[in-house]
Amino acid sequence: MKNSLSSLRMFAADLLVFSSILSGAWCQSGLKVSYPKTLNSTSGSCLLIPCLFNISKERENILESSPVVTWRRASLWILYDTVNFTNAHRQKEPVVKVLGDLRKKNCTSVLRNLSSQHSDRYFFRIQTTTFNTTETTAVNINVSDSLAEPDVTVPVLREGEEVNLTCTAPAPCPSQPPNVNWAPALGGDVTQRTQMNADGTQSVSAILKFIPSFHHHELKVNCVSIHPLHRDDRPLLSHKTVILSVEYPPKKTWISVSGSVWLGNNVTLTCQSNANPPAIHRWFLKRAGVEEELNVSHVFSFTAAQNNTGQYICEAHNRYGAMNSTNQQITVPGISFTGFLSILAVVLLLIFALLIIYRRYKEPVRSNGNSPIPHH
Ligand SMILES: *[C@@H]1O[C@H](CO)[C@@H](O)[C@H](O)[C@H]1NC(C)=O
Ligand SMILES: *[C@@H]1O[C@H](CO)[C@@H](O)[C@H](O)[C@H]1NC(C)=O
Ligand SMILES: *[C@@H]1O[C@H](CO)[C@@H](O)[C@H](O)[C@H]1NC(C)=O
Ligand SMILES: *[C@@H]1O[C@H](CO)[C@@H](O)[C@H](O)[C@H]1NC(C)=O
Ligand SMILES: *[C@@H]1O[C@H](CO)[C@@H](O)[C@H](O)[C@H]1NC(C)=O
Ligand SMILES: *[C@@H]1O[C@H](CO)[C@@H](O)[C@H](O)[C@H]1NC(C)=O
Ligand SMILES: *[C@@H]1O[C@H](CO)[C@@H](O)[C@H](O)[C@H]1NC(C)=O
Ligand SMILES: *[C@@H]1O[C@H](CO)[C@@H](O)[C@H](O)[C@H]1NC(C)=O
Ligand SMILES: *[C@@H]1O[C@H](CO)[C@@H](O)[C@H](O)[C@H]1NC(C)=O
Ligand SMILES: *[C@@H]1O[C@H](CO)[C@@H](O)[C@H](O)[C@H]1NC(C)=O
Ligand SMILES: *[C@@H]1O[C@H](CO)[C@@H](O)[C@H](O)[C@H]1NC(C)=O
Ligand SMILES: *[C@@H]1O[C@H](CO)[C@@H](O)[C@H](O)[C@H]1NC(C)=O
Fold it and tell me: Which of 47, 151, 171, 308 could form a disulfide with 177 if both were Cys (CB 3.0 to 4.6 A apart)?
């Protein structure tokens, strides 16, 4: 519904423009206006329309005869009744002020007191007592009730290397620029800068200069943009959250052993490390003063034999550095777990047998000691 209405409006506006082209001398005006195709602003704020124009040499004299610039709104209703629309709805039209110096061909204007109902196509119009003309291409003005998210650029973050995080919000109303900031500031400095874009519009950036550390990895940082509004005491707020990814060398490397170490058992050593990007792991084994490299993999598994006894070291490395785990001593006993259990069983049996023999031997002694009836 909204779409079809807006395309109907577009069509109506095209008709309007077409009819204005047809109606005589206007197309011969030699007027050429340049302004952005689209401009966005927010309800309750204002909007600066950057605007420059050229006019043919023959017409240049009109600039001396105090011309008046009006911005003609191309809604469906204007097509039906321009005059009455303008009169009846004056309060509902945005307040327009031309800021540019027309003699310098600068038609930069500001629309104040904007509301979302003002979203429309607007045409530049210049009037003098001798000459009236309307530009045939429109500036599409989009006034919304909410703010778009600020635009954030985050370069690759490497531990210890100073970087700038930039957050940019448009400043459609330069007299009331947004306040753009970063939170938390990560121990860095935030500088604000207003810049002019290629199309003449302005934006405000907050640049956070800081030195990333691995403590900042996966931290959430917000860019907050606060837009003051003249309609309301309450400013509009928008924000964008970024999750930082800091690249750093391995900070911690450790080995975990799964399973108990017995002859013939399968033992898996797993190497873990804290690194970004994730580290590649290499295994070393120190045995009887000899060191050998075992494998390049996350885990190292073996079926325990006595020659697996030794000190295992895992080295984690990524493109920023390497770090070794502490030595993990693995001692493979000369016996399997079942062997151990059998021996244990035999030992227990032996102890049990000894206990019985002991009791048998001790029993009479004990009954001897107990049987005498105490004498009074
Ligand atoms: C206006 O807003 C729309 C939607 O947020 C966006 O796609 C467009 O690039 C904006 N135009 C300008 C000129 O900022
Ligand atoms: C006006 O004309 C000059 C010279 O031809 C050109 O450099 C300039 O870009 C034109 N400006 C506009 C707004 O068309
Ligand atoms: C404009 O409105 C007035 C009164 O409100 C009415 O008399 C006049 O006919 C209207 N003109 C057109 C062109 O509709
Ligand atoms: C046009 O006028 C505006 C408002 O006075 C000014 O900010 C801008 O710099 C001018 N542009 C040029 C190209 O002179
Ligand atoms: C702004 O618009 C409101 C209605 O939307 C109107 O009552 C008010 O007078 C306008 N303010 C100015 C300064 O034009
Ligand atoms: C241009 O428009 C103004 C205001 O609408 C009007 O007073 C003037 O007579 C018009 N001039 C020409 C040449 O049409
Ligand atoms: C107008 O702006 C709003 C909010 O920024 C956006 O959602 C919408 O797509 C824009 N419309 C156009 C036609 O750019
Ligand atoms: C960060 O921005 C500042 C200016 O705000 C600049 O001096 C510095 O060189 C920039 N640093 C990097 C790493 O881009
Ligand atoms: C140990 O692993 C090997 C090969 O993966 C397998 O054949 C064997 O049965 C495993 N032994 C035990 C005791 O789990
Ligand atoms: C050695 O690493 C490869 C993959 O890198 C893996 O498939 C293999 O199981 C590893 N060998 C041992 C003994 O863990
Ligand atoms: C231990 O000895 C066996 C065979 O004797 C051999 O296959 C295996 O690679 C040796 N393990 C190590 C860690 O040297
Ligand atoms: C880790 O230990 C191995 C074996 O001792 C050694 O070759 C390697 O250089 C060590 N790496 C680091 C980063 O200390």
Answer: 171
Q: Is residue 265 part of a domain?
A: yes
Confidence of residue 24 (pLDDT cuts 50, 70, 90): very low
Section 294-323 average pLDDT? 93
CA of residue 185 relative to chain centroid, distance = 15
Whether 233 and 271 share a structural domain: no
303 lines ligand 11 (CB under 6 A): no
Q: Is residue 42 part of a domain?
A: yes
Among the atoms of ligand 12, which is closest to the Cα of residue 293?
Answer: 4
**Are 33 and 140 contained in the same domain?**
yes
pLDDT per residue over 311-347, tens digit each?
999 999 999 999 999 999 999 998 888 999 999 999 9
Residues 274 and 268: their CA atoms lie apart, in Å, by 20
The ligand that comes nearest to the alpha carbon of residue 301 is 10
% helix, strand, coil for the chain, step of 5: 25, 40, 30
